[in-house]
Structure formats: C-alpha cells, structure tokens
C-alpha cells in the first residue's frame, strides 16, 4: 500500500507567519496599494531631486547640470516639442526629446542656475515652481509662461518648499539656517539660526511654515 507523507510545520513557524500577517498594512480607502507609474531611468546628467504637483499632472526634476525639467503627465509618450526658458528672460527654443519605449517624452526645460539643482517644488495650485541650487540662488518660475520670474539670492540651498499659503516659502541651507520668504520680496522675511550643522530639509504644515 502507498504511504501518505504528511509534513507539519513547527508551531513556532506558524506563529511567525501569523504575526507577519497581523503586522501587514490592511488595504482600504485610507491605505491604498502603492504602484509605480513612472520612473527616471539612467539620467545622463544626474537627477538630484524630483517632485510632483498636488493634482498629479506635472513632475519636476532637478539635475546636476543646473537644469530643471518639467514633464506633463498627460503628454507622456506623445511626440511633441519642448520649450526652454533661459534665465530670467524666458526665451524659447526647440530641444531634442529623450526617447523611451512609449515614444518621445515632452518636457519643459528651465535654465538659469549655474550649479547643481538640489530641490524643486510646485506651488499648491501648480502655477509656480521653485528651484534651489548650489549657486546660492532660488529661482521662481511660472509654469504658465515657462519663464523665470524672480531670482532670490542668499545661501547655498539644500531644500526649498512652498507653504500651503502659496506666496510664502521656506529654504534650508548649509550655513545652518532656515529662511522664510515671500514671493513678492527678494530678501528673506526671517532668518532662523541656532542649528549646529547643515539644515538639510524644510517642511511646510497647514497654514504655517
């Protein structure tokens, strides 16, 4: 007669599996599954930072060659021309698009920085864009006109973030300070000193910086 071999797992193994299942996040309306839709692959000029607009329609990347590029998610994979915004004058020109398996990706090229771009952030409504660089400047761009509006000069910036009150923003620097700015003034409203090392990141909370 054939023998039926039955394997039993040790109780400790069963308990470990059950504990792992209990610790996993439960999927629901407040905790949805994470899915990667777009990926930067083999960026030839060094991608330092990226950010997405609140409505998910635009993605910005800051690069080591001092450029800032903005992709329109609705146009990914569609052949199109790109526009380049040079410095503060915002002159336009055609640029060769990078190719992917889905086709050519249209993007808007913003040029004006003279050093690597370490941070970029959209305003709450996506109509403005801030970029910070090792050239000791923050630049304010308009995504409607694809042009540079203001150049804020100060310290070597690691990070910049908009406030939910969109005309305010904050910056972080290697000079151990954080600064609060208003879009309509070229000097900071407040300098926050006291850290003993670089301030690498700033974060904005609702109604406050």
UniProtKB/TrEMBL annotation:
Keyword match Phosphoprotein: no
Classification via PANTHER family: CANNONBALL-RELATED, TRANSCRIPTION INITIATION FACTOR TFIID
Taxonomic source organism: Aegilops tauschii subsp. strangulata
Superkingdom of the source species: Eukaryota
Bias-annotated ranges (Polar residues): 81-92
Record-linked SUPFAM superfamilies: WD40 repeat-like
GO biological process: transcription initiation at RNA polymerase II promoter
WD repeats: 40-73, 110-141, 160-191
Region (Disordered): 81-101
One MF annotation (Gene Ontology) recorded for this entry: RNA polymerase II general transcription initiation factor activity
Entry-linked SMART domains: WD40 (SM00320)
Keywords per UniProt: Repeat, WD repeat
Any Pfam family the entry gives: WD40
Lineage: Eukaryota, Viridiplantae, Streptophyta, Embryophyta, Tracheophyta
Protein name: Uncharacterized protein
GO CC, alphabetical: transcription factor TFIID complex
InterPro entries per record: WD40/YVTN_repeat-like_dom_sf (IPR015943), WD40_PAC1 (IPR020472), WD40_repeat_CS (IPR019775), WD40_repeat_dom_sf (IPR036322), WD40_rpt (IPR001680)
């Amino acid at each position: 007669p054939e023998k039926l071999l039955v394997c039993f797992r040790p109780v400790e193994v069963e308990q470990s599996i059950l504990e792992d299942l209990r610790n996993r996040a439960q999927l629901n309306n407040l905790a949805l599954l994470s899915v990667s839709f777009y990926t930067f692959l083999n960026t030839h000029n060094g991608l330092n930072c990226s950010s997405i607009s609140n409505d998910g329609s635009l993605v910005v990347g800051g690069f080591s060659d001092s450029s800032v590029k903005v992709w329109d998610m609705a146009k990914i994979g569609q052949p199109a021309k790109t526009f380049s915004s040079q410095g503060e004058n915002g002159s336009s020109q055609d640029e060769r698009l990078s190719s992917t398996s889905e086709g050519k990706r249209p993007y808007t090229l913003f040029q004006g920085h003279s050093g690597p771009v370490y941070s970029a952030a959209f305003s709450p409504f996506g109509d403005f864009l801030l970029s910070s660089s090792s050239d000791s400047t923050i630049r304010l761009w308009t995504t409607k006109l694809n042009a540079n509006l203001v150049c804020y000069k100060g310290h070597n910036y690691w990070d910049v973030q908009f406030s939910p009150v969109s005309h305010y923003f904050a910056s972080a620097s290697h000079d151990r300070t954080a600064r609060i700015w208003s879009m309509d003034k070229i000097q900071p409203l407040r300098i926050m000193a006291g850290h003993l090392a670089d301030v690498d990141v700033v974060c904005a909370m609702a109604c406050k910086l």
